[in-house]
Amino acid sequence: MKPIARILGLLVLGALTSLPGCIQAEEAATLMPDGSGKLTLRFALKKSMLEMFAQLGKAGGDQKAPDPFDQFKDPSKLKTNGEGIVAWGDPKKEEDADWVRVSIPGYFEDINKVKMYGESNQGGDAQKKLSFGAKYEKSGDGGKLTMSNELTDDFRKMGGGPGGAGGAGGEELAKAMVEAMKPMLEGMKISVTVTVPGPVEDTGGFLEKKDRTATFAIEGKTILDAMTDPKGPAAKRLEAFGAASDKGTAVSWSKTTVGAEEIAAFKKEMAAAKESWAKRLKDAEANKQDK
């Protein structure tokens, strides 16, 4: 397989199915023993990209440039883009000299019912693709959590075989794509993190683990370094990433170590989030009727 071409295929799909021009994105899921938990979404955009969006909006005749973070602030959009989330917390927005970051937690009672979708606009047709899904299976005092999303499926399809990016000429195409995407790749980071009820034993397609948490992350710098030195450490990391993707993204543990105090604290946090979310939904509906 051609790992660099595979990774680039994933990045192209990610750009199409998430926030337009999203440079940094993270999904962080925390699972409680009973299947409840929290999914925190984090996105970051460079200010220079936001300015570019504004200019494109003006050129297209829009009086006000669209807010790429709007889907995290609008309760109706949060409901539309997700299933199985019983409450969304308040989004938090931060910025520094170069970046604007937003994060928002979503609470669920059964992770098996959670599905998050990203908007895709390919060929002018609006589509939705699954960006987060999971299957939780208990096993004695432990369990297994298997993650699924359509980006992973597309990634595998592009990994090799007839017509895939790993076919003949794939590396040359990858090099050309890297040069074209260099401004986007610099500073880019995509990661998925899961924290389960016990110490992680089998990480599946996740490359790193620490106690109860498994993570995989890919950075634009890694891809650029791999193109500079195809036999160097960055290229080997991409090889490992590509190989891991074939194993799927299942995390397993044999012993639950979450204590009663942590469980009680989470239940209190989720109850407060439900109360706040109900009020936000009511206010949003009232505002809609007033317009």
Give a nutshell description of this structure.
The chain has 291 residues and is α+β, with helices and mostly antiparallel strands. It is built from 9 helices and 13 strands.
Description of the molecule:
With 291 residues, this protein is α+β, with helices and mostly antiparallel strands. The strands form 2 sheets. Strands 1, 2, 4, 5, 6, 10, 11 and 12 form an 8-stranded mixed sheet that branches. The chain has a 5-stranded antiparallel sheet with strand order 3-7-8-9-13. The longest helix is centred in the last third of the chain and has 31 residues, at 260-290. Residues 1-22 and 152-168 have low confidence and may be disordered. α7 (220-228) crosses α8 (233-245). It has one domain. It has helices at 3-17, 47-59, 70-73, 75-80, 150-158, 170-185, 220-228, 233-245, 260-290, and strands at 24-31, 37-46, 82-83, 85-88, 92-95, 99-108, 115-122, 125-139, 142-148, 189-195, 208-210, 213-219, 249-253.
Helical stretch count?
9
Q: For the report, how would you describe the main beta sheet?
A: 8 strands, mixed
Q: By helix and strand content, what is the structural category?
A: alpha+beta
Percentage of residues in strands: 25-35%
N-to-C series of helices and strands? HEEHHHEEEEEEEHHEEEHHEH
The low-pLDDT segments are: 1-22, 152-168
| Proportion of residues in helical segments | 25-40%
N-end to C-end Cα span: 55 Å
Calculate Rg over CA atoms: 20 Å
Give the tally of β-strands: 13
Mean pLDDT: 76
Structural domains: how many: 1
Shape: flat
